[in-house]
Design brief:
124 residues, mainly alpha, 5 helices, 0% strand, flat
């Protein structure tokens, strides 16, 4: 009887998800976002190094990725992953009261056609 074995790619995803949960909820004081990003990058590099150490394990790890990229029947999956990229989720932080906040407020008011915040010309 063959024992149940989790595929290498799924193992990597589970390890990364578990590390994220430990870093997010395991430490009493909440980690700053920059430190969380650094820990996750180190975790991902460690997982990739672990799976790339052995050629058989690396081939097993790469198999689902290469199948998704090369199989023509999985074009919907490729488009799904392309659209899920976090490019559009990036937002700028604007500090209230700063020059940038005032500029963005004036620009928004101008687009609506409001004259508030725009200096009126004095008649001569």
């Amino acid at each position: 009887m063959k024992s149940f074995r989790i595929p290498a790619f799924l193992q990597a995803l589970l390890i990364i998800a578990a590390a994220y949960l430990v870093f997010k909820f395991g430490f009493p004081p909440l980690l700053p976002q920059t430190l969380m990003i650094q820990y996750m990058i180190i975790t991902i590099i460690g997982v990739l190094l672990y799976f790339s150490f052995d050629d058989e394990r690396w081939a097993e790890f790469q198999a689902p990725v290469l199948a998704t990229l090369r199989n023509d029947n999985l074009s919907v999956v490729r488009w799904f992953f392309l659209r899920c990229q976090p490019w559009r989720a990036k937002r700028r932080l604007v500090v209230p009261g700063s020059r940038e906040a005032a500029l963005l407020t004036r620009r928004a008011l101008r687009q609506r056609g409001s004259k508030v915040g725009i200096r009126a010309r004095r008649p001569v």
